């Protein structure tokens, strides 16, 4: 993909963000003009009231782009306050120096953007503008996102193309650009891919010398799975300390949808917390069990039915159109799956709403849990059916399908010869899963959306151009000026429109995809020793493809913090456990002639495998925690140092322990924070600015283009927007009754 | 036992500790006089150099009792320093106010005695006297202990006799008297006994309506076991926060035996730590596996052999002396068990030494782990053999024993009738374990040692009296004065001599005993539903008996801190897991006729039971952690409050955040700290004393008797001791060649 990366660096004008921190897209195509105008005025009012600077530009079709900029001193204060809060909640150990009016410079772009995100989305009581996308009053705000840092992204991507392996610095860079939640995904795929080298190498040896269903390779694979999961747990906690996000969940704000039963004032800390009884929530969460049952029955039934009809048609049926009919079950399945999945997702969302989680994090976690259950069924059940039902029992089940068919209508069935189960079908499916399916999913996930996105943008631009021509000379000159992009901004605005139309990046989906891949390896890997090699190659591409998708196809996600990859760790545990049992069963079943397998010996094998699994897991977790306890020790040492410093300062009556730390000059507006060289840990004590030196207003010292963007069009942005709404409403080439009435 | 408690309160003179903080017993019977004198002078020198006051009295036989008292201002400083250290290591959240010269009053007797313990045992570099009992230079120090607080103990014991159930206040009292490690044991037995009420009630119902081997009762029992273990984990962490000992392991000092590879200076905190690679230690710890194998083979072989010979004699053999021979195997087993156990314990100790643990805590933990393995084998293997080998396979195995015998010598075997396995033997063994064995072990553990101790004391006193008569008129008058107890001290010294001769209290053994009991219930409980009732009744007595043993039969243990019951939690986990599998297997085997049981269905039952176990454990641990997360939340709130207070104080430039806390008068020497009303958490900020008010020397303001004890005999305690050594050496009624030479 290096050509793409290079292609993207050509245009400085396009890549410059002109000091825009955040963009809202307001769509008013479905509203009448008066409502649209009043809503829009309220929006601008809320934003300016929260101390944000605003510029309005036309978007695609009947949409406005609201460019938001947080004045630097306001932003610096927010960053400082956020660090103080981190310290109060014990996320970091160093209290940033300074008082209430101190402004701090963000250590990373993501820290800066997180404060911008807070300024835009937090409730007014907390000092934000209270703009929640697609919720409540703001249901017509269809996009709310920060702009990508194109230069940094393409630099990173082209850097990755020159080497095979990511480093911790690369992960730090991702964290600096996109926040910890995204960085954890890349850390996971990186760690997982590195670990994959071991079974890939073993797999080549096993493929050469042992063949499939080897006991040695199977055991090695199980041990590897367990060790990897335990290692990742340690690694995760390590990273969360490195990135200063350990336990970050507890300082997150309540969701607006959170229903609390009583307010509790803590006797020790004086904090008022809004609580909801934990046991009630747990009971509600127990509804996961009926949900999982329903999902299993619905999806499982569909899969069993598809599987049975497919087997029937391919193995038994011999009538006309066989070659076409063979595809019918799969096509029907693919067509009905989205409907069923979306129905189940609907139930899942209702359940998660009902569970009443305090923070968005916990809510997402609960929702991901349910998605995991559904994904697990659709991803694993077909192959499980092949491995444990079709191949072992096919010889007795399939002829019955035949009989069922025959008793109904007696079509011309040619050969009633003894049915032979194709025992290699299971292996063939595993090979398909590890090679073809991975390529398909990559295409589906990265390539297709990109093509679609590019074509769609071209079509929108063409349509806008036509609409612009149609509108010509119908408005006042000042409106015209608003409608036409100034030459200096044109490329930039094209890009912003593109990003506003792009999809949101859902990191949970990518994490789930990797978990499913790990699951394939753990559960079915023993059937074909080259599976890990296939996955390893795929992941080399996947990590780049996902970064490409993140930077060029999706909106930049708000840099949310997290201290793990979430509930997927539990999923990995479950998959490693199931993998052990399944590997034991597959090896036992498929090694020799299947007819000779006795149920009691099979059960004994599985039972022993489970005990071995429990033993290995215990040993691995103890050993890894012991050996890699370095970070934890360092964290303790950090805490100790804080307390020690405080003790010394309080005993020598100095007061503020940070007062001796060096005072750094505030970073000027346009100076780009270098994401490569920034420290892995923000140094919260490094950047206080004495209160007196603060600029009274947000003076733009950046490039001329920036200052032109923010000051070139004097006048109320609300008025400009209203003019644009009127113009765009009129110029829209749609047969909307309201629009024609107003025009 | 109330009569005992009351009997003990009769004598004020005996119960008063006369301000003695610590007692060392120096035995010199095996040394020549010159060595004994020089060793003793070194001892007194080290103690006085460390700032401790010393008085010497004769002990039993050729032993001296060295009574130690830490001057109150020295003690107060140590208490304060220890609190500062707790705060530095993050054990407590509140920084005690004051500077380096502040003296603090201990909140509990155990806090005070812990500082005394440190003053006596810590190395000289750390400000202690460096006296380690039975180690290095001090191998003739045979006892090192604080004196019991008789009044408080008997008050507590008589209080317990008036009620059926302990309260948290009682646990707090135990903590105040004996420290957290002992308190955790009582908390565990208390929590476990309370939980036992549920299966006891269910058991009565099951006994009445369902009979043994009921599926319903078995399932309930398994669920109960899992829930109890998970609850205890939550409870333990709750208590460790309540008692301010969470994570206390990390501030413990290195063992003197610890071998470090390099000194690492922490870049953040500046602490110098002596490290030993964790992976190396882990590899060494892996030797547990061969050790467990050897122990299993040794003990298991012995048990199997005993079992087989017993069965052979009782079921097959029919020759002469049958009624006597039947007991021979058990007697031989009982006789050889101590030898084998002590051999294995020796190996275990060597292994633990080799593992090179940093602190005594970790060392004890590793040793307990190995003891657990041995205990597990001796406690469970016999009954497991009955349940899973003798009853199911006895019919085919026992006749073979017969044949083996017959081929050798053809003794007169009367009836060669078909051998019938006695299927009720398993149940009979379980009934024995839950009733008779418990009573036996209680007698063995509490009653016998008490009788032995009392008789032994009487014998020693009688012998001392005789030796005193033999010595009469052979020494100077001043030596005689030293040899004869002054009337005011006689009762007190009799008690001190008794305590010096008493055993050490090993809390780990009591914890292990409870774990084994829990294991019996989990593993075999389903065979007889009244097992939990038996255990419940036993535990009512056990908790009182153990407290009786602790206070009247053993030396007062140094109040060591701990934040859990140690490795036994892992043992409980293991027993709950094994219990589930075993209950499933027993119910499956014993419910119907055993001949009809098929291996595959048995394996399936066990396999399903294991999955259910994993499921329940996961659910229980999630639910309990969610519901009982209150303490953790409170701890977080506590941390938050500390940081908040610090932030405010540092912003208002006050400096020391604790400066506003009230200054309390130091508690006078004799004022007894009331262990009942003392706060559960020591309030470290409540008791600083301004530096200026400190007394220049430790003025005794207590009773006359106390001041007489400490000042009545002026002169160097070392000289007094030397005189006593000479006198006692001479007066000892033994035919020691050295003694006769010197006399």
From TrEMBL, chains A, B:
Q: In what way does this protein cross or attach to the membrane? A: Multi-pass membrane protein
UniProt keyword annotations, A-Z: Membrane, Transmembrane, Transmembrane helix
Compartments where located: Membrane
Domain (Anoctamin transmembrane): residue spans on this chain: 174-636
User: Where are stretches of biased composition, namely Basic and acidic residues?
Assistant: 695-716
Question: Where is the region Disordered?
Answer: 674-718
**Which Pfam family is one of this chain's hits?**
Anoctamin
What would you give as a GO molecular function for this chain, any one? Answer: chloride channel activity
Q: Report domain Anoctamin alpha-beta plait positions.
A: 19-141
Ranges of compositional bias, category Low complexity: 677-690
Which cellular component, as a GO term, is one annotated location? membrane
Give the matching InterPro entries: Anoctamin, Anoctamin_N_fung, Anoctamin_TM
Looking at the UniProt entry, the stretches that span the membrane are 182-209, 215-232, 287-307, 327-351, 372-391
Out of the domains of life, which is the source?
Eukaryota
The record's annotation in PANTHER family points to: ANOCTAMIN (PTHR12308), MEMBRANE STRESS RESPONSE PROTEIN (IST2), PUTATIVE (AFU_ORTHOLOGUE AFUA_4G03330)-RELATED (PTHR12308:SF77)
Output this protein's name.
Answer: Anoctamin/TMEM 16
Q: What taxonomic lineage is listed for the species of origin?
A: Eukaryota, Fungi, Dikarya, Ascomycota, Pezizomycotina
């Amino acid at each position: 993909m290096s050509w793409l990366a290079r292609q993207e660096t050509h245009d400085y004008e396009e890549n410059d963000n002109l000091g825009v921190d955040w963009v809202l897209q307001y769509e008013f195509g479905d509203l009448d003009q008066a409502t649209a105008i009043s809503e829009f005025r309220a929006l601008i009012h809320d934003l300016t009231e929260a101390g944000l600077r605003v510029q309005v530009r036309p978007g695609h079709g009947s949409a406005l782009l609201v460019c938001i900029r947080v004045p630097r001193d306001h932003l610096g204060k927010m960053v400082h306050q956020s660090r103080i809060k981190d310290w109060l909640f014990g996320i970091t150990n160093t209290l940033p120096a300074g008082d209430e009016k101190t402004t701090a410079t963000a250590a990373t772009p993501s820290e800066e953007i997180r404060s911008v995100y807070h300024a835009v989305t937090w409730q007014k009581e907390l000092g934000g503008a209270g703009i929640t996308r697609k919720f409540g009053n703001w249901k017509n705000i269809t996009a709310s996102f920060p702009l990508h840092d194109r230069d940094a992204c393409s630099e990173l991507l082209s850097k990755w193309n020159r080497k095979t392996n990511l480093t911790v610095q690369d992960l730090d860079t991702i964290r600096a650009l996109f926040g910890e939640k995204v960085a954890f995904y890349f850390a996971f795929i990186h760690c997982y891919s590195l670990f994959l080298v071991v079974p890939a190498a073993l797999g080549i040896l096993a493929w050469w010398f042992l063949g499939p269903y080897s006991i040695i390779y199977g055991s090695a694979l199980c041990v590897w799975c367990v060790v990897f999961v335990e290692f990742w747990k340690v690694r995760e906690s390590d990273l969360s300390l490195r990135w200063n996000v350990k336990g970050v969940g507890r300082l997150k704000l309540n969701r607006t949808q959170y229903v609390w039963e009583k307010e509790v004032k803590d006797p020790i800390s004086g904090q008022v917390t809004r609580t909801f009884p934990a046991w009630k929530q747990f009971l509600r969460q127990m509804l996961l069990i009926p949900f999982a049952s329903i999902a299993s029955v619905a999806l499982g039934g569909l899969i069993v039915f598809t599987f049975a009809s497919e087997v029937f048609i391919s193995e038994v049926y011999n009538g006309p159109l066989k070659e076409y009919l063979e595809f019918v079950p799969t096509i029907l399945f693919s067509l009905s799956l989205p409907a069923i999945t979306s129905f189940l997702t609907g139930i899942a969302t209702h359940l998660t709403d009902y569970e009443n989680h305090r923070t968005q994090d916990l809510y997402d976690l609960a929702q991901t849990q349910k998605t995991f259950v559904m994904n697990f069924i659709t991803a694993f059940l077909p192959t499980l059916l092949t491995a444990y039902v079709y191949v072992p029992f096919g010889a007795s089940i399939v002829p019955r399908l035949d009989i069922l068919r025959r008793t109904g209508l007696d079509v011309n069935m040619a050969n009633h010869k003894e049915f032979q189960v194709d025992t290699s079908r299971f292996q063939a499916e595993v090979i398909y899963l590890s090679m073809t399916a991975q390529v398909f999913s990559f295409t589906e996930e990265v390539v297709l959306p990109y093509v679609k996105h590019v074509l769609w943008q071209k079509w929108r631009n063409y349509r806008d151009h036509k609409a612009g021509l149609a509108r010509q000379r119908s408005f006042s000159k000042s409106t015209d000026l608003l409608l036409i992009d100034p030459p200096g901004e044109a490329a930039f605005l094209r890009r912003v429109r593109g990003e506003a139309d792009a999809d949101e990046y859902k990191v949970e989906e990518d994490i789930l995809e990797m978990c499913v891949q790990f699951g394939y390896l753990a559960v079915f890997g023993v059937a074909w020793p080259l599976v890990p090699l296939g996955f390893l190659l795929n992941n080399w591409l996947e990590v780049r493809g996902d970064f490409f998708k993140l930077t060029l196809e999706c909106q930049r996600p708000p840099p949310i913090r997290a201290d793990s990859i979430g509930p997927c760790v539990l999923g990995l545990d479950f998959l490693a456990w199931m993998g052990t049992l399944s590997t034991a069963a597959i090896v036992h079943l498929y090694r020799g002639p299947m007819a000779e397998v006795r149920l009691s010996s099979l059960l004994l094998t599985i039972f022993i495998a489970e005990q071995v699994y429990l033993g290995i897991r215990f040993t691995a977790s103890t050993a890894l925690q012991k050996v890699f306890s370095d970070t934890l020790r360092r964290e303790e040492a950090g805490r100790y140092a804080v307390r020690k410093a405080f003790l010394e300062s309080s005993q020598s009556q100095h007061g503020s322990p940070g007062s001796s730390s060096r005072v750094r000059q505030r970073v000027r507006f346009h100076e780009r924070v270098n994401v490569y060289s920034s420290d892995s840990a923000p140094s919260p004590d490094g950047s206080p600015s004495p209160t007196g030196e603060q600029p009274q207003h947000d003076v733009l010292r950046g490039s001329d283009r920036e200052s032109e963007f923010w000051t070139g069009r004097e006048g109320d942005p609300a008025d400009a927007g209203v003019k644009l709404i009127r113009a765009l409403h009129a110029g829209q080439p749609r047969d909307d009754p309201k629009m024609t009435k107003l025009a």
